């Protein structure tokens, strides 16, 4: 047995099984916290600043990406003092467009890579895809793991692939998408998280947004626990990004509560926590407008994207 | 052994479901003999919010064919007819005598049929081809305003509600209805009729409770496009006007004697319709000029 193999064996052996019922009960308790008034407004603004504003459609055009970049910077100018989102997330072919549009801002450009969303391509293609995104100027890369190999039990392949992409990224931060909707159990989610963290992920991310269910709270809690265990053991922080299916501000606040109670305040910044979302931003903006103006809002008065 | 009577729980109607108010509160309105009418949901502003978002989600109602909307409205009349006895009983409990109760229920059914008939006809009457002095085919068609808030009159609890709600949905709008506060029974039972009559959930949403509390969130809601006020309280009417101005809602006041069979017409449908005019470029062909 090679040393590499024994490392993977040790990751598998040390990856705990997950109590599904217990996880669901703990999640239910996070959702009972009542956040009102000033704390709510703060939480909503924090959620806004953590959004990776995303467009990953086959029909994306340069115009659409430019529009999205403008939105990222000017979320809703009618309300002064709003933060910008954390990043704009696009396909590799759109990175240079987004980069140009956001050059004068602090907003990052994230690019999906590695034959997103299926990930069913040879490693060489995935590395080339990643290098292309990095060369175009991406600040962050969102890769997908090979779920097929994971299901076959070829964990070494999954591990090596993440490590190879990490190498191709260089200094660019790497988010590893587990696509938890395709991993059947929370035990698998935990194991995939552990593999990704040990292989060098800067962030672990739930989903591509193309598969249902996307991000759920139990899945996210399982991943947060993997991050916490790693941090307790090594002192190394890993970021978390739930993506897909988080479209209401109430749910976003519940996620923030969960991050705070599981990992602590250190993770409550967009350096360590992100929401992958497209429609969440408008719902948060409408909630902020409701808090500021007192009346319930209408989507008619907010930009579509 | 005598049988224990099962009392009905009156619930509100949102998005095709019968939830209790999210606030968990209730009130007990009484009739003239000081008998309690029932435990009625005292809805809150969050129920208004939920009802408006249900109404917004149901705007596919306008996409149905006019003929199909007519069929569904007619189905409402059929279901209402089948439950006449229950409505009469409730009206009597609320203080009507048997004869007026019967007249009111019959009139309500007839009025539903009246507006069912208009569903695929008002477009022809209200639409027009307009003469213009350029090479355009210029035509106007009525389209629904959108989500409409309706405040029902305090008395005439069944026919008042039917007379205000039916023209609104006939025109393809969806609505949030605030029922009579003192006489709410028929409103809730009417919701049960709606729920069994093919009307998609969310097209009509019915809330019970204190008008003073519910009118403000409804009138200030940016996603409500029009409000029809059917009551007679000057204070409420004034508040409504001020709050509705924020997003320039259409506001109309309709207080009539709804027990009069004459008080039903096309213009009531027009209260919540917008006219869209299209200029379509054409060539002048043959001897025809652009006069048409």
Q: How many structural domains in the coordinates of chain A?
A: 1
The structure class of chain A reads alpha/beta
Low-confidence stretches of chain A: none
Strand tally of chain B is: 10
Top CATH class of chain B: Alpha Beta
| CATH topology tier name of chain B | Aldehyde Dehydrogenase, Chain A, domain 1
Instruction: Catalogue the unreliable spans of chain B.
Output: none
Query: What general outline of chain A do the C-alpha atoms trace?
Result: globular
Largest sheet of chain A: 8 strands, parallel
Counting H and I runs of at least 4 residues, what is the number of helices of chain A?
Answer: 12
Helix content of chain B: 25-40%
Strand order of the largest sheet of chain A: 7-6-5-4-3-2-1-8
SSE run of chain A = HHHEHEHEHEHHEHEHEHEH
Question: What oligomeric state do these chains adopt?
Answer: heterodimer
According to CATH, the homologous superfamily of chain A is Aldolase class I
Number of domains of chain B: 1
Order of helices and strands of chain B: EEHHHHHEEEHEHEHEHEHE
Explained architecture:
The complex is a heterodimer of chains A (305) and B (292). By secondary structure, chain A is α/β, with parallel strands linked by helices. Chain A has a single domain, classed as TIM Barrel (Alpha-Beta Barrel), CATH 3.20.20.70. The model of chain A has no long low-confidence stretch (mean pLDDT 95). By secondary structure, chain B is an alpha/beta fold. Chain B has a single domain, classed as Aldehyde Dehydrogenase, Chain A, domain 1. Chain B has 10 helices and 10 strands. Chain B has a 5-stranded parallel sheet, sandwiched between helices. A 3-stranded antiparallel sheet of chain B has the order 3-4-10. In chain B, strand 8, helix 9 and strand 9 form a beta-alpha-beta unit. Chains A and B meet through loops of A and helix 1 of B.
């Amino acid at each position: 047995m090679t040393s590499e193999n024994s490392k993977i064996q040790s990751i598998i052996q040390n990856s705990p099984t997950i109590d599904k019922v217990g996880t669901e009960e703990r999640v239910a308790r996070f959702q009972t916290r009542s956040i009102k008034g000033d704390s709510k407004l703060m939480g909503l603004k924090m959620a806004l600043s953590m959004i990776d504003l995303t467009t990953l459609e086959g029909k994306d055009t340069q115009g659409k990406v430019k529009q999205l970049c403008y939105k990222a910077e000017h979320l809703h100018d009618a309300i002064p003092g709003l933060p910008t989102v954390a990043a704009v997330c696009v396909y590799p072919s759109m990175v240079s467009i987004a980069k140009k549009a956001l050059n004068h801002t602090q907003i990052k450009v994230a690019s999906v890579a590695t034959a997103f969303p299926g990930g069913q391509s040879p490693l060489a293609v995935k590395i080339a895809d990643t290098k292309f995104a990095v060369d175009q100027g991406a600040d962050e890369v969102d890769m997908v793991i090979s779920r097929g190999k994971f299901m076959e039990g070829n964990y070494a392949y999954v591990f090596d692939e993440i490590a190879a992409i990490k190498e191709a990224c260089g200094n660019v931060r790497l988010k590893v998408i587990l696509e938890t909707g395709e991993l059947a159990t929370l035990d698998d989610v935990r194991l995939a998280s552990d593999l990704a963290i040990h292989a060098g992920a800067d962030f672990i991310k739930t989903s591509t947004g193309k598969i249902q269910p996307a991000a759920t709270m139990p899945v996210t809690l399982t991943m947060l626990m993997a991050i916490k265990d790693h941090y307790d053991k090594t002192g190394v922080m890993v970021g978390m990004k739930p993506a897909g299916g988080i479209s209401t501000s109430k749910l976003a606040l519940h996620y923030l509560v969960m991050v705070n109670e599981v990992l602590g305040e250190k993770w409550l910044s967009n350096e360590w926590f992100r929401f992958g979302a497209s429609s969440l931003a408008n719902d948060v903006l409408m909630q902020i407008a409701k808090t500021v103006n007192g009346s319930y809002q209408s989507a008619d008065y907010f930009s579509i994207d | 052994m005598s049988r224990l009577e099962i009392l009905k729980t009156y619930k509100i109607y949102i998005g095709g479901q019968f939830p209790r108010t999210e606030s968990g509160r209730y009130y007990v309105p009484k009739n003239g003999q000081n008998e309690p009418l029932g435990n009625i949901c005292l809805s809150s502003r969050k129920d208004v919010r939920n009802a408006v978002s249900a109404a917004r989600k149901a705007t596919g109602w306008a996409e149905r064919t006019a003929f199909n909307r007519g069929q569904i409205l007619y189905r409402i009349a059929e279901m209402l007819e089948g439950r006449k006895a229950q409505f009469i009983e409730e009206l009597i409990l609320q203080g009507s005598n048997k004869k007026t109760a019967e007249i009111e229920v019959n009139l309500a059914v007839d009025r539903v049929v009246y507006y069912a008939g208009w569903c695929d006809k008002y477009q022809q009457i209200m639409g027009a081809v307009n003469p213009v002095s350029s090479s355009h085919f210029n035509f106007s068609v009525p389209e629904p305003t959108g989500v409409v808030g309706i405040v029902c009159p305090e008395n005439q609890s069944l026919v008042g509600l039917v007379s205000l709600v039916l023209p609104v949905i006939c025109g393809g709008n969806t609505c949030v209805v605030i029922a009579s506060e003192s006489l709410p029974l028929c409103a809730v039972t009417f919701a049960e009729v709606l729920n069994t009559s093919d009307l998609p959930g969310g097209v009509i949403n019915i809330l019970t409770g204190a008008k003073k509390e519910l009118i403000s969130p409804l009138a200030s809601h940016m996603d409500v496009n029009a409000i029809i006020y059917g009551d007679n309280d000057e204070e409420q009417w004034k508040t409504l006007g001020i709050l509705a101005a924020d997003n320039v809602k259409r506001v109309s006041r309709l207080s009539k004697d709804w027990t009069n069979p004459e008080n039903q017409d096309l213009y009531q449908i027009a209260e919540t319709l917008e006219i869209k005019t299209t200029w379509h470029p054409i060539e002048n062909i043959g001897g025809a000029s652009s006069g048409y």
